[in-house]
């Protein structure tokens, strides 16, 4: 498999997506359980032009996102003033957070936190708590930083400060394998049936940008994906992380693949996921930003990404 990295400039130039919810709920409970078991066992649209055929591709390289600009290296803060970091994460959200076979916290977020602590060369603790208790725990000084797939929103910014994003949840199109498009543009989908979950930002984006497609709304992920497998729609549009796990899982029956690239516009899909700290804790926020850049620069972020995402959502 071929791997390629996407830098922050490439991500910024991609098309747009949905306002992110307070947290990302990518997977059904059944899928989450299957992922946990597997990890334990092993480790915009332009002005309409004349319709033209869309290019087709057989396969795409594995894309590893990079949210850091190598030309904007953060300054190293005075790390001697930080004696310990008490990370908080949540209890059951694989592959990002889950309890490992030894009873200790595990997952993408947990491994990233450990890599940051190793880079800062400081003692860290990682405590698992119910997701809905995390913000109050930080604001009441029962922890120093939240690393739990917490989406950055204007509402949360009134209570917490955030580091730079360390991942985002893009949107993508999925089609059957015999109809994969290398690029998806509004004019390519004229008259095509596109399925989406009703009432979501993904639906709002389609209605705003893909005005000549026939948009069909479904109640949930299961109904949406069954419609694609049965040929009721030409493609579906939704959260790329959830779709990546579905494509690579047994439920898809190897029916389908991504078409085109990711859509990440913050007007629809939000600012991304960052590490939250108490309001005004600039020293810790800057230290984590510096450490994240170093972890990415050394390739450790790429190693983590490839470990947890066998099919990249980007």
Query: The CATH topology of the largest domain, please?
Result: D-Maltodextrin-Binding Protein, domain 2
The topology string of helices and strands comes to EHHEEEEHEHEHEEEHEHEHEHEHH
Q: What gyration radius follows from the Cα positions, in whole Å?
A: 20 Å
Report the mean per-residue pLDDT as an integer.
83
The biggest sheet, with number of strands, parallel, antiparallel or mixed sense and barrel status, is: 5 strands, mixed
Low-confidence stretches: 1-60
Give the oligomeric state of the chains in this entry, treating copies of one chain as homo and distinct chains as hetero. single chain
* End-to-end distance: 15 Å
Total number of strands: 14
Percent range for β-strand residues:
15-25%
Helix content: 25-40%
Q: Helical segment tally?
A: 11
Task: State the main characteristics.
single chain, 314 residues, alpha/beta, D-Maltodextrin-Binding Protein, domain 2, 5-stranded mixed beta sheet, 31% helix, elongated, disordered N terminus
Description:
The protein is elongated and about 60 Å long. The protein folds into 2 domains: 79-167 and 271-308, D-Maltodextrin-Binding Protein, domain 2 (3-Layer(aba) Sandwich); 171-263, Periplasmic binding protein-like II (D-Maltodextrin-Binding Protein, domain 2, 3-Layer(aba) Sandwich), CATH 3.40.190.10. The protein is 31% helix and 20% strand. The strands form 4 sheets. It has a 5-stranded mixed β-sheet. Strands 11-10-12-9-13 form a 5-stranded mixed β-sheet, sandwiched between helices. The chain has 314 residues and is α/β, with parallel strands linked by helices. It is built from 11 helices and 14 strands.
């Amino acid at each position: 498999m071929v791997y390629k990295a996407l830098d922050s400039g490439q991500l910024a130039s991609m098309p747009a997506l949905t306002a992110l919810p307070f947290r990302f709920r990518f997977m059904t409970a059944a899928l989450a359980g299957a992922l946990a078991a597997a990890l334990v066992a092993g480790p915009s649209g332009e002005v309409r032009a004349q319709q033209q055929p869309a290019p087709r591709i057989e396969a795409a390289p594995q894309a590893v996102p990079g949210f850091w600009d190598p030309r904007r290296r953060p300054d190293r803060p005075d790390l001697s003033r930080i004696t310990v970091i008490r990370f908080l994460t949540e209890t059951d959200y694989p592959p990002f957070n889950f309890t490992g076979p030894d009873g200790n916290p595990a997952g993408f977020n947990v491994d990233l936190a450990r890599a940051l602590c190793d880079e800062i060369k400081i003692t860290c603790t990682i405590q698992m708590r119910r997701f809905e208790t995390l913000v109050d725990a930080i604001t009441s000084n029962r922890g120093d930083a939240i690393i739990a797939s917490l989406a950055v929103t204007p509402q949360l910014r009134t209570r917490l400060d955030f580091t730079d994003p360390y991942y985002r949840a893009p949107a993508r199109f999925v089609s059957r394998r015999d109809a994969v498009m290398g690029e998806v543009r509004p004019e390519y989908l004229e008259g095509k049936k596109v399925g989406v979950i009703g009432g979501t930002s993904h639906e709002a984006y389609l209605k705003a940008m893909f005005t000549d497609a026939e948009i069909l709304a479904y109640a949930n992920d299961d109904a949406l994906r069954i419609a694609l497998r049965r040929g009721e729609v030409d493609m579906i549009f939704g959260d790329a992380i959830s779709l990546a796990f579905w494509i690579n899982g047994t439920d898809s029956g190897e029916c389908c693949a991504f078409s085109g690239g990711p859509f990440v516009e913050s007007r629809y899909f939000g600012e991304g996921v960052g590490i939250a700290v108490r309001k005004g804790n600039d020293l810790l926020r800057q230290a984590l930003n510096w450490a994240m850049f170093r972890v990415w620069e050394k390739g450790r972020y790429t190693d983590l990404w490839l470990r947890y995402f066998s099919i990249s959502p980007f």
